[in-house]
Structures are given as C-alpha cells and as structure tokens.
C-alpha cells in the first residue's frame, strides 16, 4: 500500500461551533493505482486531500485516525519533514488552473523553481528540464511557452502546466482536486488522458477528487464514494458504477442527465446535506434516503462487504441486503 | 451638454493614444504630473552637472565677497563667509535627492520584508511586529525623528537612520495588508504544496505581487523625506556645517533674513520645488498604477 488512511476524523473549531468534517474515513491507494474520490460539495473530499498534505487550516484538528504513506505515519511527522514530502513525494493539482499559477512569473521559471528545489541540480539545468517537462505534458513549442506568463495561456494549457508542476519531482502520489472541472469537455478528456499516461509511465498513483462520475468511469480503477465526511461505498469502478449498493451512490448515478431523455426534468436527490455540527446518531444519509429502515435513524452503519465474500466492494448501509 | 461634447472629442484621441503607450499617455494628460516630472528632471540635471554649471566650490570661504547681492557673478548671492549660494544649492540638491531616495528606498525595502513576513506567518510574530509598528506610529513623526537623531548624535547618518525608522511602519502595514490577501491566493497555496519553503514563497511569490502600493508610497515619501532631512538640518540635528545642506543653510540664513533676504530665501525655494516635484510625481504614479483610483 502506498497510502493508507485509517479511521481519520477531522474537526473544525470556531468560536461557537465544532464541525466534524471527516468522520472515521478509511481507504487506501496502491502503487500505480488511480482512485476516484466522489462526493458532492462539503462531503470532505478536499479536507481529506489537505490532511494528507498536512495543510489543514489552523482551526482544524485531527481527532482520531492515522495516515500512513509508504509505511510512515504522516501525522507524526515534523513540520520540516512534511515540507520535504510535499511536491517531492506527494504532488497536488488544483481545480482552478486560472489562479494556481504565479501571475507575474514566467512559466519556465515557475517550473524550474520547483524542479530546482527537489533535485540537486543547477538552476540552468532545472530550467532545461522545465522545458522538457512542458514538452512531456504535450505543450507545443515548449521553449516559447516557458517564456510566457500564465495570463497568456489558455485554461487547458495552464492546467497542463500545473500538472507538469505537480509531476516535476516526480511524486509517487498525485492528488488531483477536481482537475478538470474548470475546463471544457474536449480539453477535459485530453487532460485526463495526459494524467493517466504520465501516471502509467512513472508508476505514480493518483487520488482523483471529482464529482463527475463520467471522469471516474474514464480513468479510475477504484472509487471511494463520500457523503457528509464519511465513506459510504467503495469498490472497483466496475462494481460501484454498475452495481451500486448504497442508495446515495444509486441516486448519484440516477441523477446523471441522459441525452436520450430530452425534455425530462433533471433528477436531484431530495433534501440537503446534513448539518455537520450535529451529526445524526444513525446513518448520515437516512434523512434523504428513499428506502430508509427504522434502524437507519438509530444506529450508525459500518463499512461491510456489499456482497458476502467481496473483498473490494464495501458499503456502509443497513439496507445493503435488501 | 458640455459633458457630451467632451466625450465625443476625447474618445477617439483616447483610443489611439492608449494603444500607443498608456503610461506616457496618462502622464501627458495630467499637467501637474508633467510639471512634477519637469521639476524633478531639472533638479536632477542641475545636481548632476553642478561642477560644470558653477565655477565655485560649495565650501570654499571667500570673506571679501561675503553677503554679496544676487548678481551675474553670484546668481543667488553669497553667504556670511562669501560662499556662492547658488553653488551650495546645487550641491545641496545632490545631498537632498541622494539622502531622500536612499532613506525611503531603504525604509521601503526593510518595511516590505518585515510586513510580508508578519502577514505571511501571522500569529504571535505578526502581533509582536504590528504592535511595535503601532508604537512607532503613535509618536508624531518629527518628534520621534528628532528624539532618535538627538540620542544617536547630530550628524547626517543618524538623521537618515531616524527618518528611515519613522518611515518603516507605513511600508510594514502596506506590505502586510497585501500579503494577507495574497496568502489566500491559490497560487501561493499551490506553491506550498509543491514543497517550496516559506522564505522563498515570501521573496518570490508574495513580495513581487505586493509591490505596487509600496512603489506608490515610495514616490510619495521621497518629497517628505527631503523635507524631513532639511528639517532636522534646520534644527541642527542633521547635516552639520559646512556641508551644503538646504535645511542647515536656512537655519543659519534666517537670522540674516531682514538684511540679506537672498540667503535663506533661495535654499527655501529649492526645498519647496524639490518636495513639490516629488509629491506631484507621486500623485501621478498613484493614478497610473492604481486602477481603482482611475478617474475617467
């Protein structure tokens, strides 16, 4: 296992409130694997990513659990060790390529700065590698682009640059936080393919955070479905997308618009995400669930094999056998 | 009515000029900035070419010609030991400009770094630094400068140091405010995830993007600093005689004002024009660099 998150809970504290953003989250990512983290806004996807990088805000604290990376417990790392881990071992790609680049620094210099930081080579050599890495993310005329400023590039090109930046060390784990949300569909496809190829070539694992099931189907080997800071279902892409067990996953898949059904109203999941300040005792999804049982509101379900004997497909639902 | 005619007249001109060079266009459109630029260039050229313009030496005593009236030989007259006042003003311009720029740029650099560090790290460091700056700001600027200069001993270096100290808090505040906003920008957060160390983020990612208000403040402050140097000189806490410094010249000269009017008048005029020039330029640059203050 490259990354193993076990029973991770994160709380945010403000003056009056205590928000439980993550509740006993567990999942793992293998070497070279692409794992999709799916869920709606506020489901704890980004908080999970920030926890792995040690970049949670000061008012957040990890109440239980562990994050182990290559067998080391990240939560016991010193600030300095964590610093050297970022970028070198774990890279991150952000949602907004428009603002993720330094506006007044040339592309080549931005890349060279990061490369120079992680490898013991001269700045000149780092710059040469920066240009090479631009070519690697399929940017035409990399020498020219290296001399440009971010505002001169299109969104798709910027996201490629961001990927080149995140992959420059190269890291063993790449966290991609909705990397294609801000891009249009054709560019989205190219960027995903690019990430997939780079990952394959270098053996990098990717934790792909997204709310787009189409993206998941396209590139991920496994999926973790999150809801209200909990993992509700996990399994291979095939299992989760084709035979979903959790009502939330089913509803998500059902809410995908279908071009064939023109004129039909868009399906939405009724209700809204629970108040993370007061988590219900029972299942977090019960208030919105179309098939909730009496037990759902009283007792919290745990992750258990969806089908008896399945090692990969797990679901946290009382009604999984119905 | 007049508004519409003005609009139709100025629009095409504005368009063509803006495509050529917006910076120069904006300066040209503002006559006061142009005046400031002119004054500044004049003073700069005069001080650079001082030895060529004037045949006299600024500190050479010539008792027989003391208190000579302004004439073709001595344009601004001479002082109580026969030194040519025009020459002394030219050399004084070198000193004033040099000191003014050096002090403000120095305060700007130090203040920006302190402010960026303070804003980036926040917490206790921030509190400590900002309270320290509040203490400095709580004193009337001139009084504090006088106190520092007097404590350290009256000479030009100490006067410069004193002025730099009272100028620093403004830059700290400006840089800190910009840093607080920049720190939340995604590209700074991204830099953190790429493993770039904090000092490098401050130097390469925060400061270059926080500079524009600092630059405006620097240009506005130079005129003020020149005045302060002269003030300290006037009070005997800055440059000491026989250094040709405007404030020191006025300080001695004002005693002779009734009998020899030219002695304090011309250095005063020079001081007025220099600080005026810098303030006009500063205002102009603020209008150019700050899109929010853009008056159409």
From TrEMBL, chain A:
InterPro entries: AAA+_ATPase, ABC_Ni/Peptide_Import, ABC_transporter-like_ATP-bd, ABC_transporter-like_CS, Oligopep_ABC_C, P-loop_NTPase. The keyword Translocase applies. GO terms for biological process: peptide transport. It comes from the Bacteria. Its main location: membrane. The keyword GTP-binding does not apply. GO terms for cellular component: plasma membrane. SUPFAM superfamilies: P-loop containing nucleoside triphosphate hydrolases (SSF52540). Residues 3-253 form the ABC transporter domain. It is a peripheral membrane protein. It is found in: Cell membrane. GO terms for molecular function: ATP binding; ATP hydrolysis activity. Keywords: ATP-binding, Cell inner membrane, Cell membrane, Membrane, Nucleotide-binding, Translocase, Transport. Belongs to the ABC transporter superfamily. This is ABC transporter ATP-binding protein. It comes from Brevibacillus panacihumi.
